[in-house]
Amino acid sequence: MAISKTLVDELEKRRAIALEGGGADKAAARHAKGRLTARERLMALYSPGTFQEFGLHALHNTRHFGMENKPIPADGVIVGTGFVDGRPVAGFSQDFTVAGGSLGEIHARKICHTLDHAVKAGIPVVGFQDSGGARIQEGVGALSAYGQVFYRNVQLSGVVPQIAVIAGPCAGGAAYSPALMDFVIMTRENAQMFICGPEVIRAVTGQSTTVDEIGSAQVHASVSGNIHFIAESDDHAVAIAHRLLSFLPSNNMSDPPHTIEPDLSIDDDPGFDDLLPADSKTPFDVREVILRLSDGGDFMEVMADFAANIVIGFGRIGGVVVGYVANQPLVKAGTLDIDASDKAARFVRFCNIFNIPLVTLVDVPGFLPGVMEERRGIIRHGAKMLFAYASATVPKITVILRKAYGGAYLAMCSQDMGADRVLAWPSAEIAVMGAEGAVSILYNKELAQAEDRQARARELADDYRAEFASPYLSAGMLFVSDIIQPRQTRSAVALTLRGLLSKRETRPPKKHGNIPL
Ligand code: HXC
Predict the structure, then answer these.
(1) Predicted-assembly ipTM surpassing the 0.90 threshold
(2) Most CB within 10 Å of its CB: which of 88, 153, 236, 370?
(3) pTM to 2 decimals?
(4) 462 CA distance to ligand 1 centroid (A)?
(5) Which one of 102, 149, 152, 210 would you pick to mutate in the ligand 1 pocket, going by the greatest count of ligand atoms within 8 A of its CB?
(6) Does 270-428+480-501 match 5-247 at the fold level?
């Protein structure tokens, strides 16, 4: 017996109403501003024909302020699963055209259902945030609903990758869900993220500010460090999410999508030989080393505009997905400061969770000296680097390009901090501290009496470098596994990586370590 036409018509009628969202006018207004609707965002994310929605027929639970009988199609959020590059991904997309995308109990239940599904299926989540925050008419119920989302974000952390796309307002406590996820992409226009808006700040502190000053993508990418990528449009945000997913495994029990060829041979690349300037004090762009190391020069930099004195990101070497951490001599001479330590340490921990080997490139004169750095806690923040590297059990390869001084040498994954291989270029300088600093302490009295203090200090510093900072000294003590010509770097790192792919390292069981936060 065929299903009755009446039942089919009823289903299609209900579907059509829910699919309309906030209506054609509101959708047109978004398009006029160059923005996609919530549903279009998910369609852009997923391969055509692969999206399976659940909760389309959700009813809202808003019982006050005359809302009881008002429709809120799908309760303002579209959720489901689909495929990206042949792999399943869970997704949700808040619909600002429906009650401002505000989060009520059922809306949150749909997001929670999506997150629960992701953890059961072992698949990543991408969430588009575009919401006025907690649905005010639902009162404390909406607050509790946010709590349920946060709780799940934390349960998923370390199990499946979580990517947030901030594509509209993201105000108040709502900003904490993206903050609990692994990567945050934010559109340059039309998106704002803050805890207390300008009015609240003015009322409480008397300070006058604007949304742009506290909550724009530019501010979060370069000043606060709250986001990882700026997108120029909704489509661009989706493209960034696609690229990011191409480097990530589906869950913490899977390998990342390596593309290893059976052929193990990689030719030397003479192009590496000229990357370093003749003078060891002249800065160079470490990203040139990363680009040469990476297959096809393909490098996805993460947090490019924040703490630019350290570079982090993903690439492949000989088909193996890696996470790079590299000092950037172009900015603050490549020193490690508070922001750089926070940025790199979190990235190291992300790679460790998701089985992504780490390649660390070192040219670091030390931690950044400064009154504010000390007072703001460079000890606590720098310790995150030590903690992150020492707890990481993924393959760890360190290449010392130039300077590797003091605590920063250790913080950049020296052998003692757990590197599986430390390679050094002949230009490496490895020592307890920089030559100039060491000489000023060791020869304090002699320099005070020298006729030409500067010339004598230079002479002594050159002697120190030759005698104490030579990489052969470290190689002689087995702190460095091998000294290689720059041109041999790619083949050496690729072979080492492949040899480490089955690495197993077990640690005593514990709830978790107590990383200095
Ligand atoms: C219910 C909301 C809403 C909300 C917006 N709307 N935010 N409804 N609860 N939180 C509704 C509006 O009433 C309006 O409905 C529609 O969405 C569109 O909103 P507009 O204001 O017309 O849009 P726009 O001018 O673009 O302004 C967007 C906005 C503004 C900046 C986001 O709506 C706003 O400031 N909203 C409140 C933001 C906020 O303070 N949220 C914090 C809530 S407390 P109609 O029917 O007219 O179309 C919170 C705590 C969470 O989130 C804590 C978690 C730990």
Answers:
(1) yes
(2) 153
(3) 0.96
(4) 64
(5) 102
(6) yes
